[in-house]
Amino acid sequence: MQYSLGIDLGGSHIAAALVDEEGRLLFKKTRQTDISGGVKGVAADIGLLGQSLLKNLDHNKRASVEHVGVGVPGPIHPETRKIISAPNLGWEDVDLFSELVPYFPNQEIHIVNDATCAAWAEYKFGALQDYPNSMLLTLGTGLGGGLIYRGQVFDGGNSYGFEPGHTILVADGELCSCGRRGCLEAYVSVKALRREADKALKQYPDSLLLRDKSLDASMPYTIRELFAAAAAGDPAAKYSVDLYVHYLAIGIASFVVILQPEIIALGGGISHQGTEFYTGLQEAVARHLLAGARQPVPPVIPAKLGNDAGIVGAAISR
Ligand SMILES: [Zn+2]
Q1: Ligand 1: distance of its center to the CA of 162 in Å?
Q2: Range of the domain at 270
Q3: Whether residues 80 and 102 fall in one domain
Q4: In this predicted structure, what is the pLDDT of residue 4?
């Protein structure tokens, strides 16, 4: 069995594992991301983590690991291989590739966008398998995603690639993490969900979300509690979740009109919802399609690989 090393560099954690040809993980390890030492410090952390994983293999197997893939939260310049910007790491124009070379002298190193990694992993081994024209959207701190087009990752003709979260939903709308206004991400991120729920809570002081929280105001409700309260019929929670689904559905409908994917998978923290969420979302998407009910709606389903999608995708990206 041939192994590759997959590393997922996130704003809070670095996760790494050896990955086999079937997308199975071996010896996964994680550590906190520490950006205080700059790119050299992060490269050292990645390098040592990767080396410690390689040491688990016997000499022959270790020598056969030819590929190290690192998924990073930002666009990568296709020629210089530099990370153009990674706001979660406070990086701009950073050459992680060159810093990693001394740690992996016998391997080929690839720096890849993390959302692209996740989409590729879902296509090869997860929810998008058998759908050569499909899409992954990750719902979390931001809205990321990847597009599979004719069985390949579509990353556009330039280095910025596929950024579904930064399409404009509302002209001059809410401020987005990218500095512009009205992006889809500014309406379907965790922050957006909280913003709308907090607004609604002002009108519903009896909400389930505020109960038992009075003793410690610094402990806000979790997103899981918000969805549970909405399912239980809590008006403030239901209002904000319904609004979230409404915005997400409009965003997805626009992607469907342009790209006509065969299927759309949702990953990320907010995607862990029951059938009702997915049915409601799909119905809302149908209402916003160009040809309305006459147009087939691609199934919207949960992604399969969870947090490991980034590692698997990095390991198999070339
Ligand atoms: Zn934006």
Answers
A1: 13
A2: 130-302
A3: yes
A4: 96
Measured in Å, residue 241 CA sits from the centre of ligand 1 at 21
Q: Could you tell me the distance, in angstroms and rounded to a whole number, from the CA of residue 165 to the centre of ligand 1? A: 6
Q: How many domains does the chain have?
A: 2
Do 11 and 64 lie in one domain? The reply is yes
CA of 175 to the centre of ligand 1 (A): 8
Q: How many angstroms separate the alpha carbon of residue 163 from the centre of ligand 1?
A: 9
Q: Are 20 and 116 found together in one domain? A: yes
Q: Which pTM was predicted?
A: 0.90
Contact 317, 126 (CB under 8 A): no
Task: Compute the average pLDDT of residues 9-25.
Answer: 93
Distance separating alpha carbons of residues 120 and 102, to the nearest angstrom: 28
Distance of CA 316 to the CA centre of its chain: 17
Q: Are 111 and 179 members of one domain?
A: no
Say if residue 57 is in the same domain as residue 168. Answer: no
Question: Rounded to the nearest whole angstrom, what is the distance from the C-alpha of residue 243 to the centroid of ligand 1?
Answer: 19
Residue with tokens 């505020």: 210
pLDDT tens column, 255-289 = 999 999 999 999 988 999 999 999 999 999 999 99
Q: How far is the CA of 168 from the centre of ligand 1 (A)?
A: 8
Residues 173 and 194 in one domain: yes
Q: Which two tokens stand for residue 139?
A: 């719902």
The pLDDT score that the predictor gives to residue 217 is 56
Which domain CATH number covers 262?
3.30.420.40
Residues with CB under 5 A from ligand 1 (ion): 166, 176, 178, 183
Strands (E), the chain: 3-9, 13-20, 25-32, 67-72, 83-86, 91-94, 108-113, 134-139, 143-149, 152-154, 263-267, 300-302
